[in-house]
Amino acid sequence: MMASCSLPYVADAGSLPATLPTVHDIESAEKIFSDTTGRKVVGVGTHFMVKYGVQVDPLEGQTMLFLAQSTLIPVPRVYAMFQNSAQDTTYIVMERIKGSSLDLEWPRMDCASTEAVAFQLRSIFGEMRKLPSPGGYCSVGRRGLPDGLFWTDDPANPYAGPFDTEAELNSAIILKYTENGLSKHKASYYTRTFAGVFQGHKPTFSHADFQRKNVLVRTPETQADSAHPELVIIDWEFAGWYPSYWEYARAIFACGRWDDDWSDWVDEILEPFRNEYAWMEILLREMWS
């Protein structure tokens, strides 16, 4: 298993579709796909997509490299990854996928197309589940879990692990709950409850942010290809080996307004963990309200 790659990373010259963009090319790009605090995603020319910023973690690029080298899971190619230490900025230069996101395509899809997408996604997540953990609950390189639930402004990130056991992970969640200034008495209740609800779930490789916006549908080359959409999974910043319920709980939590049938298809794509989701929903809404 690939533990990490040293920075700067540059793919073999023969695999590059064009000359890599410079920092100036990236930061002056006019095609902006996302611009949030600490991270920005831009298109540079026809070949490159770049995610960069002070909140971008090299772990995301290293996870995509690991998946590309170890599996058939469809991820964007990573062409380069480097840091500007003076600005504390990380740059991940990736393949620019010609297509659109599944959240835009979904309302236009007929029943046959949605079935085909669900079948392909079920296969992709099944492949992910086969990846053995390097030891416990962790991310690539046996580092801490990057899910936002564990986030703190402490650079040491004391709540993220890695964890040898699910009980240790549960304890970290409770500690983070109290660090947020929430009731210690309710934390005590959660401690008793989680011991029964969140137990017996093996470390399972998870994307941890499965939403339609993070699935790209490649533009078909021919009319015949349109009957079999090719998918690419993006935004791997939270990925790692979480308890087996985590993917489902996070995916259902992300259903947001519940204004269409997406949750029905999540139940088809992932193994449902309804009880675990219900408790995760309560916890997340309380911690992030």
Task: Describe the 3D structure.
The protein has two domains: 9-95, Phosphorylase Kinase, domain 1; 97-289, Aminoglycoside phosphotransferase (APH), C-terminal lobe (Aminoglycoside 3'-phosphotransferase, Chain: A, domain 2), CATH 3.90.1200.10. 35% of the residues lie in helices and 18% in strands. The chain has helices at 23-27, 58-70, 102-105, 111-129, 166-179, 184-197, 246-253, 262-269, 274-288; strands at residues 9-10, 31-36, 39-44, 48-53, 78-84, 89-95, 99-101, 203-206, 215-218, 231-233, 240-243. It is globular. The two termini are 38 Å apart. 34% of the residues are buried. Residues 60-262 form the Aminoglycoside phosphotransferase domain. This is Aminoglycoside phosphotransferase domain-containing protein. Pfam families: APH.
Give a short synopsis of this structure.
By secondary structure, the chain is an alpha+beta fold. It has two domains: 9-95, Phosphorylase Kinase, domain 1 (2-Layer Sandwich); 97-289, Aminoglycoside 3'-phosphotransferase, Chain: A, domain 2 (Alpha-Beta Complex). The chain is built from nine helices and eleven strands.
Task: Outline the fold blueprint.
Elements: E1 9-10, H1 23-27, E2 31-36, E3 39-44, E4 48-53, H2 58-70, E5 78-84, E6 89-95, E7 99-101, H3 102-105, H4 111-129, H5 166-179, H6 184-197, E8 203-206, E9 215-218, E10 231-233, E11 240-243, H7 246-253, H8 262-269, H9 274-288
Antiparallel strand pairs: 1-5, 2-3, 3-4, 4-6, 5-6, 7-9, 8-11, 9-10
Helix pairs in contact: 4-8, 5-6, 7-9
